[in-house]
Amino acid sequence: MNNITLVECPRDAMQGWKHFIPTQTKVNYLNQLLKCGFDVLDFGSFVSAKAIPQLADTKEVIPQLQLDGKTKLLAIIANTRGAEEAVVYDEIHYLGFPFSISETFQLRNTNKTIAESLKQVEEIQQLCVKHGKELVVYISMGFGNPYGDEYSAEVAIKWVGQLAAMGIKTIAMSDTVGVAKPDNIEYIFKTLVPEFKDVHIGAHFHSTPDTWEEKIQTAYGNGCVRFDSAMKGIGGCPMAEDELVGNIATENIVQWAGNKNIPLKLNTEAFSEAWRMAAEIFV
């Protein structure tokens, strides 16, 4: 029975939220999530305040976080400039970069082509190595896209190989608009996990409430042990579609893991309180 790495993603939940969440409310919520014992907390981003106004206060949030060393912080960046800002913070362990294999979405999300973004990955990876950070690359639209751009599982797998060759050690296959189907999930993870033994291949699924379990179960059954989720299933990418498809709810993954006797190192009391806080924040 493989232990799983849980990545809690309040940043993904907050980024498209319609009204601004006050900085102190963010701090209080993030500190409660830090008490839960998640492996990683995707907490904020260093992107244009114009693009993602909800997270313009990330730099104000960082000094107020109560870190105990158990949970590693991850911040999203969209370009080299953002990476340069993020790497100066000792508190941050991971930088996350969305690399879309859909040309349309890469332009929408980062205002760069795939070729330009690959160059950015190279620059950001060099920054991470220099400053002792780890780069996590998200293969956005990794299971298909709504734009009619060319897609196949082989294309997604090819990009993982190219990124792994650049020294990237954590790559998350991302179902940005919730289109992943079990057969495609199975094929991708069954191929990637044995081939790239030195790379952590994760899953960042967006999902409707009726399909989350088949996605998690299929990925886990084919060797994936790193999962992103968000309390109450809030979130989705505001750059992708007008109608957001939310994250998989963390409480669902926790229950699923319990049913499968997969051990999680979570503080259940802290988790319950964080869930209660999420219900108050995201209304």
List keywords for this structure.
single chain; 283 residues; alpha/beta; TIM Barrel; 8-stranded parallel β-sheet; 11 helices; 17% strand
CATH names the topology as: TIM Barrel
CA radius of gyration: 17 Å
CATH class: Alpha Beta
* SSE topology string: EHHEHEHEHHEHEHEHEHH
CATH superfamily: Aldolase class I
Shape from CA axes? globular
Regions with little confidence, pLDDT below 50 for 5+ residues: 238-243
Helix tally equals 11
The CATH architecture designation is Alpha-Beta Barrel
Q: Please report the distance between the alpha carbons of the first and last residues.
A: 37 Å
Fraction of residues in helix: 40-55%
Could you say how many structural domains there are in total? Answer: 1
Q: Going across the major beta sheet, what is the strand order?
A: 7-6-5-4-3-2-1-8
Structural class based on helices, strands and sheet pairing:
alpha/beta
Task: Assess the beta-strand content as a share of residues.
Answer: 15-25%
Mean pLDDT: 93
Main beta sheet: strand number and arrangement?
8 strands, parallel
Q: How many individual β-strands?
A: 8
Oligomer: single chain
